[in-house]
Specification:
globular, 275 residues, six-stranded mixed β-sheet, Purple Acid Phosphatase, chain A, domain 2, alpha/beta
Length: 275
């Protein structure tokens, strides 16, 4: 009798595990949700601008082959953004991955992005672990401008890009100096949200990724891990602090496991306008 009960418990546990894994994989490969935000940038004149934030692409099998990224690129183009911001971690190297891709294979679909003010990116920790030099070169060949603790003008905006804080490649003071030097309305792009705590008030908007919004986020418990030294403080979504705005995307790919539970893939369409 006892053995029969234990067998039923084991079978039920296995069934729940299979259902959760199936749901998690379905969520991981689903079409990214487009989340929207409106942010005031004092001094910005003219028509509002649409900024598209996408992060944590993690190109690798089984869930993010280049063909899926190409479909995401088409989805982005359909939103007609003025500027595309890629917040790092293009490389996928999960231990259970079914296929890895070269740097050129990873970034090739990004050449299809269409934004009148360009496509800007910073590198993430996985990009550094693979090869920062190789990834930078591949991105440039695909028409993507890489910001590594540097800044560039994009129309009226002075966009600073902080290199990856998780691998200690960030230099926020140098990035801020370069943003000041080129003039324009400042916004900041960072792989990790962690630098946001030290961003001065004159930079009203910071866009980031890295946390995956936990990738697996359970009711009551919340995200199992955000890989941030601030825990859940900057885990996910649209946040305001000391007059500054932070947008943290869940990303469109996965790390470690090709599963998402409670944290579906997303991208952010951020409309910025003056007062």
């Amino acid at each position: 009798m006892r053995n029969s009960f234990l067998a039923r418990v084991a079978a039920a546990t296995l069934l729940v595990g299979v259902v959760l894994a199936s749901w998690g994989y379905w969520s991981a490969v689903s079409k990214p949700t487009v989340r929207r935000a409106n942010v005031l940038l004092p001094g910005l004149r003219g028509a509002p601008l649409k900024l598209l934030l996408v992060s944590d692409i993690h190109v690798a099998g089984p869930d993010m082959p280049p063909e899926r990224l190409a479909r995401i690129v088409a989805q982005i183009n359909g939103l007609k953004p003025d500027l595309v911001l890629i917040a790092g971690d293009l490389v996928g190297d999960k231990p259970v991955g079914t296929h890895t891709y070269t740097a050129d294979e990873i970034v090739a679909p990004l050449a299809g992005l269409n934004a009148r003010l360009g496509v800007l990116a910073v590198l993430g920790n996985h990009d550094h672990w693979r090869s920062a030099t190789t990834m930078r070169s591949a991105l440039v060949r695909a028409g993507v401008r890489v910001l590594d603790n540097s800044a560039v003008r994009a129309g009226p905006l002075a966009v600073g890009g902080v290199d990856d804080a998780f691998t200690d490649h960030d230099d926020l003071p140098a990035t801020l100096r370069r943003m000041r030097a080129i003039g324009g309305i400042p916004i900041l792009l960072s792989h990790s949200p962690d630098p946001f705590a030290d961003v001065p008030a004159w930079v009203r908007l910071t866009a980031a990724g890295h946390t995956h919004c936990g990738q697996i986020s359970l009711p009551v418990i919340g995200p199992l891990s955000t890989m941030s030294r601030y825990g859940n403080r900057y885990a996910c979504g649209l946040m305001a602090e000391h007059g500054k705005t932070l947008v943290v995307g869940a990303g469109v790919g996965t790390s470690v496991l090709p599963l998402r539970i409670g944290a579906p893939p997303d991208m952010w369409l951020i409309q910025v306008r003056g007062r």
